[in-house]
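Hey, I'm writing a tutorial for new members on how sequence and structure tokens pair up, and I'd like a real worked example in the thread rather than a made-up one. If someone can provide the structure for the chain below, I'll link this post from the tutorial.
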Amino acid sequence: MAEARLPARGGSDGASGSGEVQRRWFALIVLCLGQLMIVLDVTVVNVALPTIQRELLFTQTSLAWVVNAYLLTFGGLMLLAGRLGDLVGRKRVFIIGVAAFTLSSALCGLSHSQAALIAARFLQGASAALMASMILGILVTMFTDPQERAKAMGVYAFVASSGGSIGLLVGGVLTETLNWHWIFFINIPIGVLSLVFALMLIPDAKGLGVRHGVDLLGGLLAVATPTLAVYTIVHANEWGWLSARTIGLAVLTFALLGAFLVTEARVRNPIMPLKIFESRTRSVGNGLRALFAVGLFGAFFIGALYLQHILGYSAIRTGLAFLPSTLTVGLFSLGVTARVMARAGLRNTILPGLVLSGIALVLFARMPVDGNYVIDVLPGMLLFGIGGGLFFAPSVALAMSDTGPSDSGVASGMANLTFQLGAALGLAVLASVSATATAHLLANGTAAPSALTSGFHLAFVISAGCIALGIVLAATLLPSRRRTRQVAAVAGRAGRGDVPASPRPVES
């Protein structure tokens, strides 16, 4: 049954309605604090990696697991966490995730050995999965009005997209002024505040019940498959891309993927119901998020390496260099993008965002050894900020389209899964290919700065290629402006309970 429309003003009902609106927006702040912690920890570690390596005696290969442990458990457990939210209630799972994330952040900060830090990072990634898989599901059920939902999505997109740059800046400041342990301790006060206010403000919705079952085998395969894939890609540079070990592990990875799909097709209550792919709009939206993640993390991570290793920037200066991109994303996400979406539709908002982001990556691929920030770096930063600002909110809307209350947790988990795994796999490829190219040039006598820069250029070109593929998919497979409005309307009615949990895809 649809919700009764509350009076806009006057009387006790009007006051009650106003109070409920305020509660929703304060609850959104709590959700965004959780999202901020998640995004910060994806990037905040990177500027501190040299210090961590020196103090804990990591090798270059083992150091990669400080980042990978977080990304892999984060992405791999997203679907299982989303299913748990549907079964036991999204608020409960979100609160457990916040508490576990705060505890694991303290354990990371207290770590004084390699094993302790990597174990804590695995736990931190798992905790982040519990939080992230719930955020969008809670958001779309709290904000049922399409205009309110668009504004809320814009706020969420701003936090999700800008947190990466903020993480680089915060990581640099804390590492240089205090020590690397504080990049984790900073999460503790944020986590405590989020936990307290989440208990007070987030509405409690009853889950389907554990009697519907949990797909533990699917959850295990969802973690094992991408972990093995990243492990294979990271070490392919060392073993050789066509070596027997690389090919064997690649075959095993695809076998695990096949086992996962077979499991999801046969079990009674899969963590990833294959019907989720029935909606072309939702599938394309998730595919675009995965491809864009490669470009985004390529711009931020490879860009940070260029700034530090080629231009000689400090950690703090590197964070400051990314601020133009962050501020531009924020400007668009907080208001401009919502208005563009309303006027032009989702496809016509995403396409310019992808085009501008692709141009930015091409510009990055031309940055020289003796580059100048204003001439060679800033234009790309600004273009990528505009492109990202136009991309994030409509991509989330597409990924959550055709979703009802009973499966919003799975759809939310899928939206985050595709982005995080796209980032993890993309970074593994970019790092390996870039390192291989650099090593080849060094072996042929090329000077180190030129060899590094050429490797970075190749990584940017690959990132731009992923964005170009996204442009083709969006232009050919997304529905027209009229139909994207229908998608938004169906999504809005689903959030209010007016349509079945799994309606016929609008674009079919």
